[in-house]
Amino acid sequence: MATNPFKTVPSAWIERFAPLVRSGGAVLDLACGGGRHSRLFLDRGHPVTALDRDIAQAHLADGAEMIEADLENGSPWPLAGRRFAAVVVANYLWRPLFPQLLDSLDAGGVLLYETFALGNEAFGRPRNPDHLLERGELLRLTPGLHVVAYQDGIEGKHKVVQRICAVNGPGPVELP
Q: Are 162 and 123 in contact (CB under 8 A)?
């Protein structure tokens, strides 16, 4: 059985902006799945906290702090009081988490977020509008952050996405 490259290869968006993360700064990989972004940041020398509701699917070498938590069941945020140089989220959307995500960013911390947007239902999953961002929604969900880059639209012929790279603090930021 062939390996799905989208599950193992880091997102080009997240890889592009990874150099903006402070050298050696702690990274939170939220809804880490198989750990592709955790591995990216571990390889770059960052301490990584990988969080998912089923951490067993994360195939990580030694070095990552792994936390198993269901973020959608009303339990308290498992990382209260902790701060990160970067928060990374790919292909996951639970809107009630945004205040905790923003509070988790250090001064100068980088939010790297990408997920599916309305219109994606024409291409496949997810189809539920609760799991799809509305046009411009990532911009509205990240007030007070300095937006370094943002995309909203159809990618290729197979998905509709929104992506943001934003910094907790004033700009300008030198683009990689």
A: no
Task: Summarize pLDDT for 111-150 with one digit per residue, the tens.
Answer: 999 999 888 887 778 777 788 989 999 999 999 999 999 9
String of DSSP letters for 118-150? TTGGGTSS---GGGSBPTTHHHHHSTTSEEEEE
pTM of the model: 0.90
Closest listed residue to residue 72, CA positions, set 97, 100, 49, 104: 97
**SS3 state at 174:** coil
Residues with Cβ within 8 Å of residue 107, at least 6 apart in sequence: 168, 169
CA distance 34 to 38: 9
Euclidean distance between CA atoms 14 and 27, whole angstroms: 12
Answer left, alpha or beta for residue 43, where phi above 0 means left and psi between -120 and 50 means alpha: alpha
Whole-number Å distance between alpha carbons of 68 and 82:
16
